[in-house]
Amino acid sequence: MTEVFMFSSIEPMVPEIFMAIAGLALLVLGAFNGDKAANQIGWLTALAITVTIALLLQTSAQPQIVLNGLFVMDQFAGVMKLLILLGLLVSVILSIRYIADEKMARFEYPLLMLFAGLGMMIMVSAHDLLSLYMGLELQSLALYVLASIRRDNAKSSEAGLKYFVLGAISSGMLLFGASLVYGYTGSTNFLMIGDAVAQHKEIGVLVGMVFLLAGLAFKVSAAPFHMWTPDVYEGAPTSVTAFFAMVPKVAAIALLIRLLFSAFPGAIIQWQEIVWALSAMSMAVGAFAALRQENIKRLLAYSSIGNMGFALVGLAAGSGEGVTAVLVYLVIYMIMTAGTFGIVLSMRRNGQELEKISDLSGLSRTCPTSAYALAILMFSMSGIPPLAGFFSKFMVFQAAVAEGFYGLAVFGVLCSVVAAYYYIRIIKVMFFDEPVAMYDKGTPFARKMIVGLSVMFIMVFVFNPSPLVDIRRDAVTVFFPHG
Amino acid sequence: MLTSLAFYLFAFVLLLSATMVITARSPVHSVLFLILGFFNAAGLFVLLGAEFVAMILVIVYVGAVAVLFLFVVMMLDMGFAELRKGAMKYVPVGLIVGGILLAELAIVYANWSFVPDYQSNLASPVNADVNNTEALGALLYTDYVFAFQVAGLVLLVAMIGAIVLTHRTRGGVRRQKIAEQNARKREDVVQVIKVQPGAGV
User: CA-CA distance, A123 to A115, in Å (whole number)?
Assistant: First the structure.
């Protein structure tokens, strides 16, 4: 049972090992230099993430399960990790200047992001309930601290505390589910669970699966487990909100896909119903609750709930096309979110951060570039045809219709129409309302680059969508070997 | 004979001290009874042959958790009598919830069944030759070394978090400066004064 240790058994996890060691080294560096070195540590963290990406690209994508079945590396994991690392890189770069402007620069900040990223990588590669939980906790614990990192601010502390308490409850639900699944199948390994479920579907396993799904639905903030999202997004520093909106959701959805397709393919009828309900509720909450929001961070929080609902439509379809659509959706969602937050981070006047929607009024006259960029991003988010956001929604609905989920698809389109109202309201405020004073000058180059690239991507995606879609489709073959 | 005597002794004292935890008037007594309860539960684990769990129970629960409780209870002057005043009106609700839980446990126990050949699914078959501390160690540092290492990282992040959120450098704190203390000379700090008898200093 215990195999002899060889390098080949840790080779698939070289990127993670590098990331952990880099994090520890930077922590020591930070401990010696204090918070004055926060800026350098931020850029060094970005460098470490870049090296991790390079290592990841070197790692073979042949399916390999190592370390006693705890860790899996395959094409799906590779693609998702690449996406997570890119999102992490963008978040760290977006943060460096912001935390200096807000006078909350601490050297631990980028490192906590790095460790959260490491937790997400482990989640994506989890092949056992044990590694699933360890990765999830590593990620969540770092995120709780990040949410409350501006500890002298009441809202930030509130965000951290709320996130921590509700996160602990969700972890409890997840663990309860895991213990039931283990109790009824006799194993924590995904493949073994899959075999046991296929042979003999006990009611206890299904109850356990429901609890696991509830715990993970909390992490992707799918309704009805979304209550924490608006408060945490509003209270956390904006750079942290950008990170929350982009990266952890990708990891949690990836984990959900992995869990459902490798441990519970035998119970697909049962979990499809649950995912169906989660998806419909999230789309409705995302569409209707955001209508009356005045704070742009809260608005984006509801928007992210709605977007997760749309992504789950593809998962509810339960087909290869559906999962491909989910992955494409996540890529496009992440790119749009990065661009939007890049602009929101630059909303400052007299050194004060602004987060009201009314603060955007007349932006087309005071700063036309930002206004047009944000307008394109909002059009894309609401799903107006030639932009990338339309294709991502189109793909998930197409997959749902192909599997006969007409009701869900129609409901999704209706929610999308309602949601278009608040996206387009932002455009109206920017272009037709009276301008207020200018924003502060001096947007850092890196932030402009990120916004520019993201706008560029959503505009040119229409000309050549196939490479992205093909890579996602290849990644999904891990779960659907026969087509 | 001796084992069953020990079992009844431990079980009896455990139940008694558990009752005392919730009925004792003084919170300090409650915590002390809690510690007694932990010790007796540890005794039960030893009887079951799970000596590792017994030791963990004593070290973690008695050594850390209960002592922490005791500190909190003794340091904070909380109005426990006040807290307890309205507690009796929640008894009916508590009984209902407790009853439901008990019924659920009974149902689960009555309907419990394993997957047909679950023995083959067990990640680590029970080996009778080694004691359980050794068996746990052999698994933890080999098959589950990955989870073990990640647990280390989780604890590291928890430590970073605690420091980030609570540590602050405050002005006006008198820190101990060991070098300065060592550099003090006798002549600088000690003054010998001749005191006349009856005259005072």
Answer: 12
Chain A residue with Cα closest to B146: A67
Q: Number of folded domains in chain A? A: 1
Is there a contact between A242 and A88 (Cβ–Cβ < 8 Å)?
A: no
Domain coverage including residue A433: 279-483
Nearest residue on chain B to A105, alpha-carbon basis: B164
Of A416, A472, A411, A177, the residue nearest A276 (C-alpha) = A411
> Which of the 8 DSSP states describes residue A463?
T
DSSP-derived letter for residue A426 is H
Q: At which of B78, B98, B119 does a domain end?
A: B78
Please state, in angstroms and rounded to a whole number, the distance separating the CA atoms of residues A158 and A166. 12
**Helices and strands, counts by H and E, chain B:** 10, 0
Instruction: Please write the tens of the pLDDT for every residue from A320-342.
Output: 889 999 999 999 999 999 999 99
Q: CB-based contact (8 Å) between B107 and chain A? A: no
Cβ–Cβ under 8 Å, residues A212 and A133: no
> pLDDT class for B122, splitting at 50, 70, 90?
low
Helix (H, G, I), strand (E, B) or coil at A139: helix
At which of B78, B108, B139 does a domain end?
B78
Q: Is A104 touching B (CB cutoff 8 A)?
A: no
What angle, 0 to 180 degrees and rounded to 10, lies between the N-to-C axes of helices A108-124 and A75-101? 160
Q: Does A319 fall in a domain? A: yes
Confirm or reject contact between A17 and chain B (CB < 8 A). no
Q: Which amino acid is at A44?
A: L
Q: What is the largest distance, in Å, between two alpha-carbon atoms of chain B?
A: 99
The three-class DSSP label of residue A97 is: helix
Are A261 and A275 a contacting pair, CB within 8 Å? no
Q: How does the average pLDDT of chain A come out, rounded?
A: 90
The residue range of the domain holding B157 is 127-167
The tokens describing A316, both together, are 């509810």
User: What is the spatial distance between Cα A66 and Cα A79, in angstroms, rounded to a whole number?
Assistant: 19
Of B121, B158, B160, the CB nearest to A108: B160
Burial A305-339 (b: 16+ CB within 10 A, else e): bbbbbbbbbbbbbbbbbbbbbbbbbbbbbbbbbbb
Structure confidence by residue, pLDDT tens digits, A257-303: 999 999 999 899 999 999 999 999 999 999 999 988 899 999 999 99
Q: What is the pLDDT of residue B78?
A: 66
Residue numbers of A between 201 and 260 with CB closer than 8 Å to B: 202
Beta bridge partners of A459: none
ipTM of the complex, rounded to two decimals: 0.91
- A341 Cβ contact partners less than 8 Å away, ≥ 6 residues apart: A94, A238, A239, A241, A242, A245, A246, A300
For A96, residues 6+ apart whose C-beta sits below 8 A from its C-beta are A39, A42, A43, A46, A110, A446
Number of domains chain B contains: 2
Q: Supply φ then ψ for residue B183, to 5 degrees.
A: -80, -10
Phi, psi of A348 (to 5 degrees): -135, 140
Within a domain: B21:
yes
Number of CB pairs < 8 Å for A and B?
93
Helix (H) or strand (E) holding B154: helix B145-166
Q: At what angle are helices B67-75 and B27-48 packed, to 10 degrees?
A: 180
Residue A410 included in any domain: yes
Q: Give B-chain residues touching A153 at CB under 8 angstroms.
A: none
Burial A443-479 (b: 16+ CB within 10 A, else e): bbebbbebbeebbebbeebeeebeebbebbbebbebb
- Cβ of B122 and A188 within 8 Å? no
Q: How many residues does chain B have?
A: 201
Is residue B114 in a domain?
no
